[in-house]
Amino acid sequence: MCFRRSATSSVRSGTPQIDSCAKTDDAHPSQTVVDTAHNVVKIPAGVLFRRSDDWYAYLSINGAAKLQRVAVGKTNGLETEITEGLSPGDIVLLHPTDKIQDGTLIHTAH
Predict the structure, then answer these.
(1) Which of the residues 65, 66, 75, 84 could staple to 80 if both were Cys, CB 3.0 to 4.6 A apart?
(2) CA distances from 98 to 58, 102, 104 (A)
(3) How many domains does the chain have?
(4) Model-level pTM greater than 0.70?
(5) Which domain holds residue 61?
(6) What 3-state DSSP class applies to 75?
(7) What values do phi and psi take at 6, rounded to 5?
């Protein structure tokens, strides 16, 4: 999976808003913007995993997995900002299993 540079990334929190005079089935969901960042690099949170106190991701380089330590920024639980360790255009592995190790041969679909 490729990750991209995003113009804007917002962390949102959703709570239903219910008017005290409305019926329960008239509830309307709302979202509150908690934080916004511009020009950030972000990846799906399922790419990341921890070893000791550090965060890691696997890159796909020339058909092999390469373990890469990364520094993470803000997250909304689905996407995470990467502040160090990955570059735009890198191909990363989503939900790597424990069978993947540094140097494991892999096939990626673009």
Answers:
(1) 75
(2) 12, 11, 11
(3) 1
(4) no
(5) 1-9+36-110
(6) strand
(7) -110, 140
Which amino acid is present at 15? Answer: T
The CATH number given to whatever domain includes residue 75 is: 2.40.420.20
Write down the pLDDT at residue 2: 43
Per-residue pLDDT at 55: 98
Contact between 56 and 49 (Cβ < 8 Å): yes
Helix (H) or strand (E) holding 74: strand 64-75
Please check the confidence at residue 76 and state whether its pLDDT lies above 60: yes
Q: Supply 39's token pair.
A: 């020009």
Q: What is the DSSP string of 46-57?
A: GG-EEETTEEEE
Residue scoring higher pLDDT (86 or 16): 86
